[in-house]
Amino acid sequence: MASDDRPSWQEYFLNITKLVAERSTCTRRKVGAILVRDKRVISTGYNGVPAGITHCDAVGCLRDKLQVPSGERHELCRGLHAEQNAIIQASTHGVSIQGCTLYCTNMPCSICSKMLINAGIIKIYYGEGYTDLLADEMLTEAGIEVVQITE
Q1: From CA 95, how far away is CA 42, in angstroms rounded?
Q2: Which of 22, 83, 141, 151 is catalytic?
């Protein structure tokens, strides 16, 4: 906590991601993401199925049924990742996210990292680690600073 008992901007935005994650209907992991520019929230996203599709907490998890380990075979999921939904929300409303910073409860996977690189994200703050060496490698090569915030 900052010396004046106010959270730092990084703590503030990471705390918002935790609230956003509470909307998730994923049975494996609740993830929240926000895109920020000039200390203003531009877009939010949480992991879950596309609009109009039955939620995983109602029909069960396909990845659990197939015994897919965490971090593998992302395509075997009915849902989108929080980062993907934050990008889509901005796009739906015609808002550019180039130059934004991503705050996320979890480290982005390689699929989300590719999207974030092409969307022009300049920095990533995250809470919990996520083992994805390809994501680490690509984000480093793209020059995107990645910072873990631990509590």
Answers
A1: 8
A2: 83
Q: Assign 3-state DSSP to the chain and report helix, strand, coil percentages, each to 5.
A: 35, 20, 45
Question: Model confidence over 107-139: pLDDT tens digits?
Answer: 999 999 999 999 999 999 999 987 789 999 999
d(CA 142, CA 98): 14
Locus of tokens 């969307």 = 119
> How far, in Å, CA of 35 to CA of 29, rounded?
20
CA distance from start to end of the chain: 9
**What is the distance between the alpha carbons of residues 38 and 94, in angstroms, rounded to a whole number?**
18
What is the spatial distance between Cα 151 and Cα 142, in angstroms, rounded to a whole number?
27
52 with 22: CB under 8 angstroms?
no
pLDDT for 69-78, tens place per residue?
877 887 888 8
Predicted pLDDT of residue 3: 61
SS3 69: coil
Max intra-chain CA distance, the chain: 50
Catalytic-residue membership of 83: yes
